[in-house]
Amino acid sequence: MTEPTAPEDFDALLREVLGEDYQPPARQDCTLAFPLDKVRSIAELAVAAREHAIGPGDPDARPRLWWIKGDGTFLMSNGIDNTPHTRDADGNWHHIVYADDWGPGTDPSTVLGGDDLHETLDLTQPLPDGQVLIDMLRTAPDHATRFLLHITHDDEGMALTMTTS
User: Fold this and answer.
1) What is the pLDDT of residues 78-101, one digit of tens each?
2) 3-class secondary structure for the chain?
3) Contact status, residue 77 vs residue 97, Cβ threshold 8 Å
4) Which of 33, 30, 69, 45 has the alpha carbon at shortest distance from 123?
5) pLDDT value at position 142?
6) Of the candidates 93, 91, 36, 41, which has an alpha carbon nearest to the alpha carbon of residue 68?
7) Which pLDDT band, with edges at 50, 70 and 90, does 10 fall under?
8) Predicted confidence band at 117 (pLDDT cuts at 50, 70, 90)?
9) How far apart are CA 20 and CA 137, in angstroms?
10) pLDDT of residue 12
């Protein structure tokens, strides 16, 4: 049986193929900003839905937002509302909100590292600070216009914190 390739072995293989100057994309701490009104809208869609899709690593079906990094980076409702293929006036899917400056055709790997990503943001379970995400969105100050997703990295992995501004 072949042993799985360790990340450092994979990077060595890529340097062999791509040249000694190859460096894997660095993961940088950053903050992504999303339009708060649109995030609230897709969160309410998830909460109101009778059914919910289950994403990778989700233990059960309940209201969530998924943070996706691929072609751009966006938040997506997991609520199933039986209106597929519905787009807003700008041609965007009604259940997806792109981060400011990271819409379709952008490459967030330059900031967030190389691989595509799926992270679950549970709307109904308490966050580490005790706050529930849907309540944070609903009670954001009147002057707030952005939902901020703060991403930090350490030896243990990635940590997410959320605020409004």
Assistant:
1) 988 766 556 666 666 668 999 999
2) CCCCCCHHHHHHHHHHHHCCCCCCCCECCEEEEEEHHHHHHHHHHHHHCCEECCCCCCCCCCCEEEEEEECEEEEEECEECCCCCCECCCCCECCEEECCCCCCCCCCHHHHCCCCEEEEEECCCECCCCCEHHHHHHCCCCCCCEEEEEEEEECCEEEEEEEEC
3) no
4) 45
5) 95
6) 93
7) low
8) confident
9) 47
10) 64
Residue of 69, 62, 58 lying closest to 46 (CA atoms): 62
Cβ distance 30 to 145 under 8 Å? no
d(CA 138, CA 147): 11
CA 92/CA 111 separation, integer angstroms: 24
Strand partners, 148: 33, 163
Q: Which of 3-7, 82-86, 125-129 has the lowest mean pLDDT?
A: 3-7
| Residues composing the chain | 165
70, β-bridge pairs? 72
Joined tokens for residue 90: 């700008």
Q: What's the whole-number average pLDDT of the chain? A: 82
30: tokens are 């950053």
